[in-house]
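pipeline/complex-builder :: batch 7 item 3
reading input block
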Amino acid sequence: MIEIHEPALEELIHDWSTLNREERLARFRSLPPGQDDDFFLSLEDHDEADLVVSMPASERRLWMRLLAPDDAADLIQNAPRSCQADLLAELDDATRKEVSALLAYKEDVAGGRMSPRFARVRPDSTMDEAIAYLRRQAAQVETIYYAYALDEEQRLLGVVSFRDLFSADRTKTVRQVMRTRFVSVLANTDQEQLAKLFREHHLLAIPVVDGDHRMQGIVTIDDIVSVLQQENSEDIQKVGGMEGLDRPYLEIGFLQMVRKRAGWLAILFVGEMFTATAMGYFEDEIAKAVVLALFLPLIISSGGNSGSQATTLVIRAMALGEVRLRDWYRVIRRELGAGMVLGAGLASIGMARILIWQAVKGAYGVHYLLVAFTIALSLVGVVTFGTVAGSMLPFILRRCGLDPASASAPFVATLVDVTGLIIYFSVAGLILRGTLL
Amino acid sequence: MIEIHEPALEELIHDWSTLNREERLARFRSLPPGQDDDFFLSLEDHDEADLVVSMPASERRLWMRLLAPDDAADLIQNAPRSCQADLLAELDDATRKEVSALLAYKEDVAGGRMSPRFARVRPDSTMDEAIAYLRRQAAQVETIYYAYALDEEQRLLGVVSFRDLFSADRTKTVRQVMRTRFVSVLANTDQEQLAKLFREHHLLAIPVVDGDHRMQGIVTIDDIVSVLQQENSEDIQKVGGMEGLDRPYLEIGFLQMVRKRAGWLAILFVGEMFTATAMGYFEDEIAKAVVLALFLPLIISSGGNSGSQATTLVIRAMALGEVRLRDWYRVIRRELGAGMVLGAGLASIGMARILIWQAVKGAYGVHYLLVAFTIALSLVGVVTFGTVAGSMLPFILRRCGLDPASASAPFVATLVDVTGLIIYFSVAGLILRGTLL
């Protein structure tokens, strides 16, 4: 009979965040055998770590030993520092050695994600011999979808997929069938770069080699899918103007969440204070022509919005490798054009609004045409500036070695607010001097 | 010898966007055999479609026939409608039938992503028989990592992984080894839901079945990785306040890009116009106390920034399934607390700034303490309102059947700007009546 266990598991995971440690452990122990290991393996790294840490030592061993070396390393990296040695001690000798080697790498590079348990074949085996040999390794390796042909010094000579092994003429050797042009990475390759390789080449595993092409391990695509989701969450949260949360929203502690948000919010606030300073210089103008103040939020927010769009586009294009540093000139040319077209569009909506309101209510006095021109011209200037500044900020940040994703929508909006009101009052000074000012 | 072809391919793809159709075709034809098919398969769906469409009919057949049915269906879906029938005609009869069936599904559901070419085994075969049988299918199927045991009516009975086949006792039958508890989906399952299943269960392929559990095809993880990237780009672009671009930044046409940005920008602009209307009601207050205008951008942007943070967090948590509609009460309680704490933090920075400026420059007149209190109290109100509104907007949108990701940072900022200035002037009216007002 077919039984689809997904919905039940889904329920367990969703509800999970509302439970405390004891309740989680009790729930976990109440699962029927067979479902408990499925559930355990489906937990996020940090939840897995929490659960194992909350178990008595006698219970830990079983679960630690269920994990592949790369997953065990991830779990240990997510456990409190004080427990890490104890957890490592639960592993058998061979695995402990492998896990210790993995722990030497940062979690976000190929070395920290790789499994040392790959399937190997001898280059001079026939298809039948290779298949028989793989059959003996099958239980121990992380994936058998690709087998790797190594020489005596463990240097990677070629990759052969299972499909190739299976479909090739039985009398051929591995050397005749294997691919010698393949993608491989070094242990320090960043995981975002890895994700890009998986995506572009439609691979299921990528071999990790050292500088002499000696095989170190493999990174498999299932590890990268969760990485992608996590990196993307962080990117989205940065665009929204905060540090990336590293845990699910409902699970992260209240104070920790507030701290992650407060930092950026305070920086933005201090940046935005310059608007008050800048406005101070235009106090007289405002006193003379209060009508100018009415349109202030409209004008500066238009700059902020167009800047947010531009910065979001460029950050994402950079993250996907579609745009590089040297493309800055193509981008600025494009955004200058886009800014002027978008600014002109908003300016015509703005003018229409003023002319209609004036006709209906006479709201803007005798100089309403000059006011309308001031608003329109300011909008073109502010939107163009916002667009160009928003698109260039990620380039500047990257050029300075910073994360371009820090150029969040609110960050750009703040930057553009200050310059936007200077543009606005300068345009007003030019057009309205002698009449309203 | 090891040759890593990735960098060359990378160069080709990057540069690709700057070429016109003829140049692309010429470049593609100049690639050495063996590298041209790697390159072809690594192109994004729409680039692949463009390239094939630009070829003379005689050249198309080779490339169309290189594609697996699901990839051919994706290509055809990305080609201009007028060419689709011609492209379909290039396929051999069997493939054409499969591709036509796939084209009946939307591109973003399991049915549109699935391959009908999966590996099948008979439930009563022994391990040796099953392996021999798979060996005969290997060249034709999309992935051989899992084999599917079907009954005579094509109903899915169980799944057996290659590793299990290889490591199990040779005399056992498939029925004894196969997993009967497994994840499967219906053809109309959304691709985001699919991505979640791949991630939670660490799977390489998921079977697609109909209502009677009859096997339709499989979705493989490599198709989902590109889906994930694309969906995430769209989500990020929505947070930045625009429609998702469906092509790389440097490749999309200028007018098309401007159009995607102009829509939201105009909507936000019209929304922001209400600030001018609202300000109209407070014109007298501004004329009496110009000092109020100075802090206006600071206060309303603080509401916008805190709202952006809250909305981004909630949208992402919803996309990942961490937060559901029924969690709204837990979220609002959390955000009410967070808003008050964050607002109080900004209020104290704001007060400090006013007191220091007053001490140094005497900038805010005799009633500076009242002004400081007005600013501080307004900040607590505006930030709390922004946070709560930003966090609830995605719930409201989803409740109305709309995409919660439409609650972009700029959208929330606009909403909060209007209410923010009403809060600000109301607080000012309460505190400053009889002194400045």
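note: Chain B touches chain A through 135 residues (CB under 8 Å).
queue -> next item
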